Amino acid sequence: MITDLQDLSQRWASAELAGDADFLDKLLPDDFVAIGPRGFVLSKDQWPARHREGRLRYQRFDWDEVDADEHGNSAIVVGRD
Question: How large is the average pLDDT for residues 52-68?
Fold first, then answer.
């Protein structure tokens, strides 16, 4: 399962780089919350909207130091971008 999660996180990173909002809509759970480096908070709807609205375009998106931990039927994946 850990390898699958690491692979999925790489697919997420590729979708971020490509601005693939449709993939992000399917991937992110309904209770997704992201906290940015300056403390802003984005919901599941707001996260892919950044790409749809053209407010965000990456020239580069690196995803490394990926660590996945299983907790029963759930898992937590942490990485560095």
Answer: 87
- pLDDT tens, position by position, 32-57: 988 887 899 999 999 999 999 888 88
Q: Which residue has the tokens 């580069």?
A: 60
Q: Two tokens at 81? A: 């971008």
CB-CB contact of 2 with 68 (8 Å): yes
Query: What kind of fold does domain 2-80 have according to CATH?
Result: Nuclear Transport Factor 2; Chain: A, (3.10.450)
CB-neighbour burial class of residue 17 (10 A; exposed 0-12, middle 13-18, buried 19+): middle
Q: List the structure tokens of 48.
A: 């892919």
Start-end of H helices in the chain: 2-18, 21-27, 46-52
